[in-house]
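Page header: ASSEMBLY MODEL / two components / 226 residues total.
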Amino acid sequence: ETGVTQTPRHLVMGMTNKKSLKCEQHLGHNAMYWYKQSAKKPLELMFVYSLEERVENNSVPSRFSPECPNSSHLFLHLHTLQPEDSALYLCASSHGQGPNSPLHFGNGTRLTVT
Amino acid sequence: TQLLEQSPQFLSIQEGENLTVYCNSSSVFSSLQWYRQEPGEGPVLLVTVVTGGEVKKLKRLTFQFGDARKDSSLHITAAQPGDTGLYLCAGARRTSGSRLTFGEGTQLTVNP
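Prediction written out in full:
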């Protein structure tokens, strides 16, 4: 399997649930990202990991908790979410973090918070 | 205030027509990337432009980076239904490290 794989593809959860999103990349990249994509809004960068260390945290609420156990895997742990957190969550990876490093995206997890 | 403005937001055309979508900013970018996102999938990189005035061609798609590196355009010749998707531009600035600034996107529909 190649590329960036995200699971699950769809997730419906209540506001009191705890769930996790998983991302796996098989491209040998050393940087991984979580983005949030909402309707009629630009992609919002949430977290960046480089060599398994978090290098960016874009003022994301603490109900979102990332984890990067190794350079190939990235998780987003979710708890006590709000309905406005419903969105498409995209994982991406890149080789390096320079301004010209293209992002390779997964197909996303469509999250609905009820 | 949106840093990268894309226009139009929506475009519906017939197969065979030509079209241009725009990505504009008041900020200077060191490079600019264009992605296409199809329903149910993540964005896929089409091209990266890095030099002011640069023009890149990808089959029927022509990308141009403005001379001042503040804007870019994507021109599609003889559009086909397979070109349907959300076109996203994303700018990188040396001062922003790993952060790409995305536009809201142009949703293109090409009708057969």
